[in-house]
Design brief:
This protein has 10 helices and 12 strands. The protein is of the alpha+beta class. Strand 4 and strand 5 form a beta hairpin. Helix 1 packs across helix 4 and helix 7 packs antiparallel against helix 8. The longest helix has 22 residues. The radius of gyration is 22 Å and the shape is elongated.
């Protein structure tokens, strides 16, 4: 019988998977220092307060990477050092993947914060040895909402919409208002459908990706086939108002040919000509895990 790799032992025997977590309290100080030494930024490797007792260690690696059957191909696991924060430090912009730098979440009734600056890489061989030795080390799981959000928080660092800052500066002045309004009318209350919103994605197009004072833009919201014609009309009307306000605010030109349509009616060639704008944070906040990260 083939011996399990360290990663397979962690995943199958210890039930260590993405969004698993454990408190650092039982980890020896020497191991904590070794973990800190893996930080990319040298000046942070001496910040031992980030490894004080009470620090929550959250597994970031994907399950397929954890359970790799060859340790020589994938020998490490990514772990985020998460600090307990008080409620006054909780900011909606750091929840549900809106921020690429910080991720705030609840665990066992307390608020915690993960930072991209404090993500360490730990050898699988070392971690399995520690877990085997520390028989009273408890491994927990984050709640479903945060478990779903975690991989998207990590991925957003690499899949952010590459739009010009000058365009984003105008768009973000009204984005929250219209996304909230759209999700308010598009929320699905029928659990048998298996999704929480009739909106599948927000796409747009610009005539230039360079920094400039004027743009011609196009908005398009992709809707699920189950949407009613009445709801589709309502969504189209809101998106049209969204585009009109952006024009009033910025002086840009709206060139949208259609503001919303269903998956079946949408030509794949047309969709691939657009950029998918990242509004995953809103979907995650409503518990919807049926969407795909697309860079373009």
């Amino acid at each position: 019988m083939t011996e399990l790799s360290c990663g397979q032992q962690l995943f199958h025997n210890k039930k260590l998977e993405q969004a698993s977590c454990f408190f650092i309290d039982l980890i020896e100080q020497s191991d904590r220092i070794e973990w800190l030494d893996s930080l990319p930024k040298k000046d942070l490797r001496t910040k031992t307060k980030k490894t004080k007792d009470g620090t929550l260690c959250v597994i970031l690696s994907q399950n397929c990477d954890i359970a790799c059957n060859r340790d020589d191909l994938d020998d490490c696991i990514e772990i985020a050092f998460c600090q307990n924060i008080n409620p006054k430090q909780v900011h909606s912009g750091n929840q549900f993947t809106k921020s690429v730098r910080k991720f705030q979440f609840k665990f066992q009734g307390n608020d915690y914060e993960a930072s991209v600056d404090y993500i360490v890489t730990v050898k699988k061989q070392s971690l399995i040895k520690i877990i085997n030795e520390k028989t009273d080390l408890n491994i927990f799981q984050l709640d479903k909402d945060f478990k779903l959000a975690l991989p998207f928080w990590r991925a957003n660092r690499y899949f952010r919409s590459a739009l010009p800052d000058s365009f984003n500066e105008k768009l973000y002045q009204i984005l929250d208002k219209y996304i909230s309004e759209l999700e308010g009318v598009a929320t699905n209350e029928l659990p048998h459908y298996g999704f929480s919103s009739f909106i599948k994605g927000f796409y747009l197009n610009l005539d230039s990706m360079e920094e400039r004072d004027f743009y011609q833009f196009e908005f398009f919201f992709l809707l699920r086939d189950e949407v009613t014609s009445e709801l589709q009309s309502t969504i189209q009307e809101i998106v049209e108002r969204f585009a009109e306000e952006l024009v009033e605010l910025s002086g840009y030109k709206d060139c949208s040919s259609m503001y919303a349509d269903t998956e079946t009616n949408t030509n794949v060639k047309y969709l691939t000509s657009l950029i998918r704008f990242n509004v995953d944070s809103y979907s995650l906040k409503k518990g919807d895990d049926d969407f795909v990260i697309d860079a373009e």
